[in-house]
Amino acid sequence: MKVLQQLALLFLLFSVALNSQAEVNENTTINDIHQQMQSKQLTSEQLVQFYLQRIAEFDDKGMTLNSVVQLNKNALKQAKALDRYFLTHGLKGSLHGIPILLKDNIDTIDGMANTAGSVALANNFPDDDAFLVKQLKEAGAIILGKTNLSEWANFRSTASSSGWSGLYGQSKNPYDITTSPCGSSSGSGIAASANFATLTIGTETDGSVTCPAAINGVVGIKPTLGTVSRDGIIPIAHSQDTAGPMARNVTDAVILLSAMVKADKNDHDFVSSNIKYLSHLKLDGVKGKRIGIARNLMGYHKGGDNVFSQAVRDLKELGAVIVEDVNFENKDQWGDAEFEILLYEFKDELNKYLSKTADGIPKSLNEMIEFNKRNADVEMKYFGQEIFLMAQAKGSITDKIYLEALAKAKRLTQEEGIDALLEKHKLDLIIAPTTGPAWKTDWVNGDHYLGSASSAAAISGYPHITVPMGYVHGLPVGLSLFSGKLQEGVLIEAAFGYEQATKHRVAPKLY
Asked: Is residue 36 part of a domain?
């Protein structure tokens, strides 16, 4: 039987080589790929080879976007195994043979370190896959490699440059390599946009999926907190951290989300979700929805606001009921509370993560601070570690200051924030520009970040989707859609309906 399977695979590869009409480009979707596999026009091995060649051509050479920083040496071997599986069993799952890139703060046992971009973690090789990675592999995915990030998920310095890490250097925006890719999931946003994999995964504490998705012209989904396991992810804060899909279209992002979501009972704050995500991909998903405009979550870039105004007109034409001036009256009150929470939780959770790492790796935040001092010529040549120092000065997460800040932040963004506005105006969802267009990368002054719509959804733990809505001087800007807890279905309907009607995304030109 084994010989017959091998002969069948050889015949399949030979027939593909002779007769292939397969085409893989920036518009190729998961469904396209699986159809080509079923019609013997494409194999997973060929798909992996396509992406490896593209990464070599545009990420390592050419434009040197520097988004993919580690590659799975066994990716082709795994693709061949999936091709053999397909001959006798068909598709293993919804992600059969699909190459995925992970942000380099997620554990995988494919021979790649989990570094958070820090030199200190260059040899941090996990003993097990993160829970979400196990779900991806069960669905048939191939972990192609790992992507650069703003070091420590942008939680080391108050003057950092998005997309820069001490271990890997600066990642670059594919639409203009002199501009920022945003962060902290910088490499994942770039790689999705530049078509270095079918899908990528980022993580978000506040804006780290949605900002790089918007600025790199792709779709990003931050799901309801706890629906995607936090196991195996280098932490900032359990009260806000989540992984999320990034893709060139809503459909692929939703397919990936469906594979990622599963209750992990070892994640003490897991949230069960029974949402049938794919059922919400509706062409008329905008029609009849009451959509509120959060006017005081915008105004930080005139060009972005102008593009947003057109998006509002498009939503009206698609049948939405637009409700003006749905403002967060308390938005200036939640920031300080959020930062207090993140400092406390970062110290607590990073110490737990580091305590389980291999010999030779710092075992606490305090040891990491000392490591950075000893290696300042590499780690701190552009900016320092002010946030590390602030976090180290905090006490226990049983402290009254922490508990009061946590209660305040959740109250202001949940029952007195998103929930209150949805109820008051009888809304299905709220929209705003995700952020402005990319700013110039600046290692001297740090990020020239003007603002975003991410914090309400991030702090509350509620879902948030960004979808391309147009361009400002050739740079992408995104439309943010957010709603209440476990309301991903509503957001997917609106995002998909808007995307399919407008088709704004234009791939970057790589040379």
From this structure: no
